[in-house]
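#struct-help
A.M.: can someone run this one for me? Single chain, 227 residues.
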Amino acid sequence: MAKVESVSPDEHCIVTAAVAEAEKLTDGEIVTVIAQHSDDYRETPIYWAVAAMFLALACVAVFPEWFEGLLSFATGGWQHVYTPSEYLTLVMLLLAAKFGAVHLLVAWKPLRLALTPSGIKQARVRARAVNLFRVSAEKRTRGLTGVLIYLSMAEHRAEIVADSAIAAKVSPDVWGEAMADMITELRAGRAGEGMAAAVRDVGKVLAEHFPKSDDNPNELPDRLIEL
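D.P.: on it. Structure tokens below:
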């Protein structure tokens, strides 16, 4: 998937226009949000550092000759008979070095994201989308017809969250086409076009179930929100 650093002013206009056009045919209200990431995943370096530390400990236990060779190399080949206390201290130093090195390496954001399990990223994106929906769209329309389209670019994941009136009539799998069209554009590095495509697909579904009434006001902002 092509990397998207930010959304240009032109893409903001494209999304805003798509929302305004879609809402001409429905009482539904579409909120669009693009975030650079949904979480910092600060626990990931710790998990990998602990795993590296235990792996090093296992190597010392299973292959003591390897550790003794490492000590010999570190001391320039001088032979020394270590006491149990000295040996344990050296093992602890090795584990601390392993922990620190791996933690520092995985703290680099691109690697941290790459090494975070997919399931965790999906859960964090979903949680962020739900939280944003609660503050931006949930129960903020008189017909409970708000829907949030959320894109988290670092994780390359998106979510669609709908208010209760929509959820009662529209199964979550109906949004599959909108998600697929968005991903197609994202793979080409066009986040704004992807969001606009999703807006058009969501608008069609809303127009089918919640057609435009004569006295329905525009209750939520049409503009793209970039976090």
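A.M.: thanks! The two ends are 21 Å apart (CA to CA).
D.P.: also worth noting: The beta strands are 29-35, 146-152, 157-162, 224-226.
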